[in-house]
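Following up on my earlier thread - several people asked me to post the actual chain instead of describing it. Fair enough. Here it is, all 161 residues.
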Amino acid sequence: MKFMVIGHARHGKDTVCELMRGLYGLTFTSSSMFACELFIYSLIKDTHGYSTIEECFNDRVNHRELWHKLIKEYQGGDKTNLTKAIFKEHDIYCGNRSKAEVQAARKDGLVDCVIWVDASNRVPLEDPSSISVTEEDADYILNNNGTESDLLRNLQETMNS
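Reply from S.P.:
Thanks for posting it. Predicted structure:
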């Protein structure tokens, strides 16, 4: 199965993917790191003064709108370009931010399940300029407003349904 794990910044998407890796042996990558390595670093390293991919990746929180724009441009006429590249190497696409990309991936049969991670009771939502997916784009909403034990239990219940 191929999964997308979506949600706002800092809501626990990577943690969910790490749990899925540990529990079910699934592979994942952060879409931001994947895109950084694939094309973003080479596009912005000189204008932003980055000397390493890690430096560029770690500064992404300060340039969310730019990253969103660059990924959209990379997609070009095929909104599934990044999805295909990630799923070629991994079971989970962690961090998709584009409603159009989720819809195109569903239409093309590239993704089997979309999970929204929600921590909105304890972490602010990000600016809509860098995210167009919503919980309505997901098959399951995973509550991450409690403890890590709660999250683990919620994930296991979701995966068993």
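The radius of gyration is 15 Å. That should answer part of your original question.
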